[in-house]
């Protein structure tokens, strides 16, 4: 008997619960959202351009170091190909082994430089965001916005939510 009473109460609750949904959803406050495009800020503002220039200088220096190592490897490989016909087989195998090790080292260096550049890019963006934070907070208060997201995080958004132009105008 108790089982049937419990099922009846559960069934009645399920039938009546849709009636309470409008009451519950009207009690939840609606947050105003704004969006900024961090990439645009990096490209269009003086601070972003300075940060990009500094990052590009680091990138070029690291790329030059990698290019030098790559050129050295190509020269060694060409020399080995020229000398291969006159080298003894055991010396040829030893040189091939050294060349393979150099190739592995070159790949390792390329991966390390790529990781370093990714870290440098993150530091550049973080420093720029630290500088932009007080401006973003002021814009949020002025626009009565409770949440500001990077526009790349949105699948779709109304263009009127984009606050990038206001941010870019205030970034020095």
Write up what this structure looks like.
The chain has helices at residues 2-26, 38-44, 46-83, 89-142, 164-170; strands spanning 33-36, 147-150. With 172 residues, it is mainly alpha-helical. It has one domain (2-170). It has a two-stranded parallel ribbon with strand order 1-2. α2 crosses α3. The chain is elongated and about 85 Å long. The mean pLDDT is 87.
Give start-end ranges of low-pLDDT stretches: none
The strands making up the biggest β-sheet line up spatially as 1-2
The secondary-structure element order is HEHHHEH
Distance between the termini: 76 Å
Estimate the helix proportion, in percent.
over 70%
Structure class: mainly alpha
Tell me the total number of β-strands.
2
Q: Tell me what portion of residues adopts beta-strand conformation.
A: under 5%
**Shape, principal axes of CA atoms:** elongated
Tell me, rounded to a whole number, the average pLDDT.
87
Radius of gyration: 31 Å
List the main descriptive attributes of the protein structure presented here.
about 170 residues; mainly alpha; two-stranded parallel sheet
Protein topology:
Layout: H1 2-26, E1 33-36, H2 38-44, H3 46-83, H4 89-142, E2 147-150, H5 164-170
Parallel strand pairs: 1-2
Helix pairs in contact: 2-3, 3-4
